[in-house]
Amino acid sequence: MALTGMQIYKQLPKTNCKKCGFPTCMAFAMQVAAKQKAISDCPEISEEATTALSEESAPPIKLVTIGAGDAVFETGQETVMFRHEDKFHRKCGIAFKLESTLSDDEFRAGIEEINSRKYVRVGKEIKVELCAVELDGDGSAERARLAAGASAVPIILVGEDPAVMSEAAAAIKEKKPLIYRATAANIDDFIKIAADNELPLAISAGTAEELADFTVKAKDAGVAELLLSFKGDKVGDTVRFTTQVRRSALMSKFRPFGYPIISEFESDSDETETALIAVAVAKYSGIVIMKGRKAWQLMPNLTLVQDVFTDPQVPNTVDAKLYEIGTPDENSPVMYTTNFSLTYFSVAGEVERSKIPAYICVVETEGLGVLNSWAGDKITAEKVIQTLKDQKVADKVKHRKLIIPGLLPVFKAEIEDLSEWKEVIIGPETAREIPGFLNRVWDK
Ligand code: SF4
Fold first, then answer.
1. What's the 50 CA to ligand 1 centre distance in angstroms?
2. What pLDDT does 57 receive?
């Protein structure tokens, strides 16, 4: 039976410290009772209280940790079907697959490639999160060891032969790789390998009923960390399977499906695989294995992961302050924008690309972009003028030219009338036009 808010509250520290994001312990307890939060979201709760509340208060989807030390990836513990109901707690991890057919040199190069696939987008790092090593016959344990020594990200051991998997898993168990994947043909052996080495296990089955039987069996054998594996080549199958699993876990609290999902796709077409991965990212996969490793396949899906797994209730902001792009001096251009991070980083990136050092004055707009902040009354000409004063922008340059966003030209006259910035230049409407614009209007 589910715990009530009061039963949960009794186990909490009752200090109302707000570290969980709620104003009181009681408010937090009500959220846990409604399965909207996990008890582990209270950083102050004692171990005894956690144990006491464990089974019933456990989140409907278990948290699974792959990797050890600095290379750790967590998935699961999701609480909602749709992002707008709260947020998705743990981002989907993209894994690159290194196939067993690679030569040793190609394999090493593949690991290096995985380690280096990191990018910064809107101020946050996005990257390949896992290295999936395909095992096939002799030399598999050596491959696993090589990956364990060289990979900067956690490892997934990919194979279906129990003898091969057993050797490879034992060889690198201290790195806590994921064993991928148990099927009807090897389920007993793979459960034993996972239990003996205390490793997480991905399980796949032909039907939902069989999958539920397998996860119960694995749990009873002591394998606590499981993933539900889906391998297919059709969009409809993907969405049907992942939605059914998520819905059963969250809405019906069906514990045998209370685990994160790992997906992989069988396709000879890079384009099809890339599109299917996007569907899996959007529809509930905790990990997706990619066979194609080209940048054009990776980037859209990393971008999608970042967008889907951003908390929709927390504006993505940067500090409202004066930013220096390059090494600007007293003759450099000055412009302003809002503190919505996507807006700021788009503008900053394009200014950098222009090769003209500049000052960007960021106005506090509660994380809204240019037009939204104007529509929501979060930005006015007076506020821009005040921000320029507060940030002492006039002390940085000897000119009084101000470039303003092309989407908001209406401030021009007011800024010129009410401030010392007597030459207001209307900039482009989109960030990508900034390099051409600056090189055209600014005398270097
Ligand atoms: S973090 Fe824990 S102790 Fe602090 S207010 Fe939240 S529930 Fe209470």
1. 13
2. 64
Q: Is 12 in the pocket of ligand 1 (CB under 6 A)?
A: yes
The CA–CA distances, whole Å, from 230 to 40, 289, 311 equal 28, 11, 26
Dihedral sign, Cα of residue 30, residue 33, residue 38, residue 39: positive
Q: How far is the CA of 21 from the centre of ligand 1 (A)?
A: 8
Assess whether the C-beta atom of 16 lies below 6 angstroms from ligand 1. Answer: yes
Q: In this structure, is the dihedral angle defined by the CA atoms of residues 176, 181, 184 and 186, taken in order, positive or negative? A: negative
Residue nearest atom 6 of ligand 1, based on CA coordinates: 20
Coil vs helix vs strand at 265: strand
Distance 251 CA to ligand 1 centre (A): 26
Query: From the centroid of its chain, how far is CA 52?
Result: 31
Provide CATH code, domain 5-57: 1.10.15.40
Distance 28 CA to ligand 1 centre (A): 7
CATH class of domain segment(s) 63-308: alpha beta
Domain ranges within the chain, ordered by starting residue: 5-57, 63-308, 322-441
Which token pair is 424? 């207001």
pLDDT at position 56 is 67
Query: Considering the entire predicted model, what is its pTM?
Result: 0.76
Q: Is 29 in the pocket of ligand 1 (CB under 6 A)?
A: no
**Phi/psi zone of residue 105: left (φ > 0), alpha (ψ -120 to 50 degrees), beta?**
alpha
Low-confidence ranges of the chain (pLDDT < 70): 1-2, 55-57, 444
Residue among 10, 26, 39, 42 whose CB has most ligand 1 atoms within 8 A, to mutate: 42
pLDDT at 286: 97
CA of 12 to the centre of ligand 1 (A): 7
How do beta strands 93-98 and 285-290 pair? parallel
Taking only the tens place, the pLDDT of each residue in 360-381 is 999 999 999 999 999 999 999 9
Taking the centre of ligand 1 as the mean of its atom positions, its distance from the CA of residue 246, in whole angstroms, is 28
Q: Which residues contact 279 (CB under 8 A, 6 or more apart)?
A: 235, 238, 239
The hierarchical CATH code for the domain 322-441 is: 3.40.50.11600
